[in-house]
Specification:
Elements: E1 2-8, H1 20-34, E2 37-44, H2 58-68, E3 74-77, H3 87-100, E4 103-106, E5 109-111, H4 116-149, E6 161-165, E7 171-176, H5 178-192, H6 197-206, H7 221-228, E8 236-239, E9 242-246, H8 255-265, E10 286-288, E11 295-299, E12 304-308, E13 315-317, H9 318-334, H10 345-373, H11 379-402, H12 407-410, H13 417-423, H14 426-436, E14 437-441, E15 460-461
Helix pairs in contact: 3-4, 4-10, 5-8, 6-7, 10-11
The structure holds zinc ion (ZN).
Length: 474
């Protein structure tokens, strides 16, 4: 008998089936045992036969033509699902074999499709294969979702790590980005030794260390705090805010340092006891307009005052400066165009464009995930597309964020700013100040008893080219 062998390997990453070469060897063994002569081998590699696959299988079509031409007496496959996982395809192939009187062999057994029993058995196998294809599809979808949730290749890359991709573009591993990891380790060490997040953030900004998102706004104290409480850095996976197990990436922080940081950062007394710098709204934010140094709080005989920390050029009572700045801030945030503060109108078009770009690319990526779930694209292809798109999305999101309004500020604007401002913690208030203000304090004018607003004339809203004096604000 003339035998034709058909082998196929699907792109299912969970498929633990045999390679086409192994399938062919098995089929050849069957042919040898049965004394059949192998006249032709058809092989589809990396293709799916499920009804979710739209790709044509060229060898499968050639096989059908070969059988139709009456060039073989028996079709040999490794298992029933190698030929089709779709009932319609099964019926059509069965009809063909039946019409041509061709034997149908898989899993080492020969079926005669003119016999009722054999038609039943092969039909049942086809049904089971179709069910398996459905399950595979569900499994792939689940894997995509699980990976996304686990911060594996589908999720946003955690700062401090980079991803390695294989030659085929498939995800291989998430490894430590040494330069970024050093930033995390240093911050953890300093927090663990009692330094305030605020002073670390300030130091990072002074040294020009880029933030995780690469934005121009620089490090903030809350950013440092959030970063050091991320269980990802001790190699734990988090899903919906809970640790769900060990991650498959190496830890950056040792568990002891992490635990110390966490207990410090979550300590409710932190703001008053450990972190004395955050008791004052403007310490570190206000700059001496004479020499450019930061202003620190100093206790006089009678009161606290902000004082130029380097040369003591200027000084102003804390309560006086704070009241004035808060009044200006609240007035500005109460205005209908408050949101233009951080995103000047000219830049908003660019921001909106970047945001749209990120959104469209996210949607495109979602389509690719869906295509992968339908088996229309190989996992390697998906990984390659994903890598390109994710990089582009992150870039667009960064551009959209550059002058984006932070949620903290966005939630403040509108009627009732003052009440909302009062409800913020001192840490949040400080963050708003550092986001919005470039505060400069000048020398005292002759004879001024209270704060002369003109002393703040060189201050400006961040991102604004004009000073408060030029805007007629003071
Ligand atoms: Zn000074």
């Amino acid at each position: 008998m003339r035998a034709v062998i058909y082998t196929r390997v699907s792109s299912d990453p969970n498929n633990l089936g045999r390679s086409v070469e192994e399938q062919e060897a098995d089929c050849r063994a069957v042919c040898e045992r049965e004394g059949w002569q192998v006249v032709r081998v058809f092989s589809d590699n990396d293709r799916s036969a499920s009804r979710y696959a739209k790709k044509e299988r060229p060898e499968y079509q050639a096989l059908r033509a070969f059988l139709e031409a009456g060039k073989a007496d028996v079709l040999v496959m490794w298992e029933g699902s190698r030929a089709q996982r779709d009932l319609e395809a099964y019926l059509s192939l069965r009809k063909l074999c039946q019409a041509q009187g061709i034997g149908y062999s898989y899993s080492g057994r020969l079926y005669d499709l003119s016999r009722t029993d054999d038609r039943f058995t092969t039909g049942l196998d086809a049904l089971l294969a179709e069910r398996e294809a459905d399950l595979t599809r569900d499994r792939v979808l689940r894997a995509v979702r699980a990976n996304a949730a686990a911060g594996k290749p589908h999720g946003r890359l955690l700062y401090g790590y980079r991803r390695i991709y294989g030659d085929g573009g498939q995800f291989v591993a998430q490894v430590i980005h040494e330069e970024h990891a050093e930033v995390i380790r240093e911050a953890a060490k300093r927090v663990a030794s009692g330094e305030a997040c605020y002073s670390i953030a300030e130091d990072f900004n002074r040294r020009g260390i880029p933030t995780p998102r690469g934005g121009k706004q620089g490090w903030s104290l809350s950013q440092i705090g959030r970063m050091l409480q991320n269980p990802g850095y001790i190699g734990k996976r988090v899903h919906l805010g809970k640790i769900v197990g060990d991650a498959d990436w190496p830890a950056i922080l040792d568990p002891e340092t992490y635990a110390v940081c966490r207990s410090i950062l979550t300590d409710p007394r932190r703001k008053t006891q450990r972190d004395t710098t955050v008791r004052h709204l403007l310490s570190g934010a206000a700059v001496c307009d004479v020499c450019g140094s930061r202003m620190r709080v100093q206790k006089n005989r009678t009161h606290y005052a902000y004082l130029c920390s380097a040369r003591f050029c200027v000084s102003v009572k804390t309560t006086v400066l704070e009241q004035f700045v808060v009044a200006v801030l609240v007035a500005r945030l109460s205005r209908p165009d408050a949101l233009d503060l951080l995103a000047p109108p000219a830049d908003r078009g660019v921001v909106e464009q970047a945001r749209q770009e990120a959104k469209q690319k996210r949607a495109r990526l979602e389509e690719w995930y869906a295509a992968a779930a339908r088996d229309e694209i190989t996992p390697a292809g998906l990984a390659s597309i994903e890598r390109t798109l994710l990089a582009e999305i992150e870039d667009a999101e960064r551009r959209a964020e550059h002058v984006d309004v932070p949620p903290l500020v966005r939630d403040l604007v509108g009627p009732g700013v003052e009440q909302r401002w009062e409800r913020l913690t001192i840490g949040q208030q400080r963050e708003v100040v550092s986001l919005l203000l470039d505060l400069r304090v000048g020398k005292t004018y002759q004879g001024a008893r209270s704060l002369d607003p003109r002393r703040l004339g060189n201050s400006r809203w961040r991102g604004d080219s004009q000073t408060w004096a030029e805007r007629g604000l003071v």
